[in-house]
Amino acid sequence: xxxxxxxxxxxxxxxxxxxxxAPVGLLAELTHRCPLQCPYxxxxxxxxxxxxxxxxxxxxxxxxxAADLGILQIHLSGGEPTVxxxxxxxxxxxxxxxxxxxxxxxxxxxxxxxxxxxxxLGLDHVQLSIQDVDDVNAEKISAYKNGxxxxxxxxxxxxxxxxxxxxxxxxxxxxxxxxxxxxxxAVEMGAGRIEVxxxxxxxxxxxxxxxxMPTRAQVLKSAEIVEAxxxxxxxxxxxxxxxxxxxAKTPKPCMGGWGRGVMNVTPQGRVLPCHxxxxxxxxxxxxxxxxxxxxxxxxxxxFQKYRGTSWMKEPCRSCPRAEIDFGGCRCQAMAFTGDAAxxxxxxxxxxxxxxxxxAAEQESAEQTxxxxxxxxxxxxxxxxxx
Amino acid sequence: xxxxTTRTRVIIVPASKPALPTHIKLRHDPGRGRWHVLAPERVFxxxxxxxxxxxxxxxxxxxxxxxxxxxxxxNAPLQEILNxxxxxxxxxxxxxxxxxx
Lengths: 386, 101
Known about the structure:
By secondary structure, chain A is of the alpha/beta class. Helix content of chain A is 34%, strand content 12%.
């Protein structure tokens, strides 16, 4: 049985042409509000404010449009999606229209009653993030007290309600040495799946790269730990291992190819090819308030700009891997080389690759990393009310 | 949490009675004209044989019975079908897509 990851939905002749080109997944960033302040947050540096968030009805409409478009899975994310009091109303509609619903949560604002209700409404899966399994370290990373104890509790409820659990563990220099304990924690929590996800350096993580980057030796060791654990826990827990591409030779097929399998809707309703794509200049992001989701996906300028391979320059254009990794990540190319159409500097063929690797090696070798710049709303005061 | 730390790998045998856990969904997608298996953060595309096997994973029918039915339907040697069915279900069990009692 083939797995569609990256999203290989083009392998057979489709019945309905529009659906054939539909994304498999939609990441719904319901809000950018979050009680945690992790310095590697994937939200943009400019966070959307609460008073500009889509309404309940608008999100419900996004769910209906997503199902009509042929999207199969909806990832309810944030920020912290549970700070939205209408999460239940959104999940209810998503489940009704047949979407596979995945809640991506830090857990600390979730209650047992809400989780029970979400399950009754059709929530299919919970992905719970952890910062570390060491209380002091977890608090240092998230700038949130007693988060780990709360996460243990959430894990218990998930099992109590017989829901599938994924533990998401973002990995960086502050917790990489704890990896064996993190894996053990996930087993103890009854998780069927763990994401050992080395930080990808965009947005807040890029700002904090020097404080987060592990050494090459640490990464290699972590890969060995994961391989051994995978074998030991075969049939018990499924592993997803994301490597930091600074130490790679070929870039990752970011998003499975631009505008190919996944789309992202921001709290304000802007539709993005990936959550970091607002860092790429020259893109026009349509809003679900103005234009149908299907039209945005098929024809929106931001989606068309780097879709496929025709935008590529050398060395991507003639590369045999052009349709394997799609030139890697446009946002990383933009951030590191100043041109989003360049090959990802993670690629060994990039003229910037040497400097890219050197940055990681140099920063990770620093004995005393710089302090974190915690994820916070920009200086202007955020409205307190929900 | 001792019950969880002792979770073990399920080994599929002819007498196993496989089922899809409630959070795994075998669904027909009319837009694309095909079946999908929806799983946590995963979408699988079962081939025609896999679809036939998964449809029979009801927690009551044994692997042996499933293979016997398929051998009849496809007019194929039972042992071969049984071996293929076991290896496919073992793979899916390891991926958390199938459970078995």
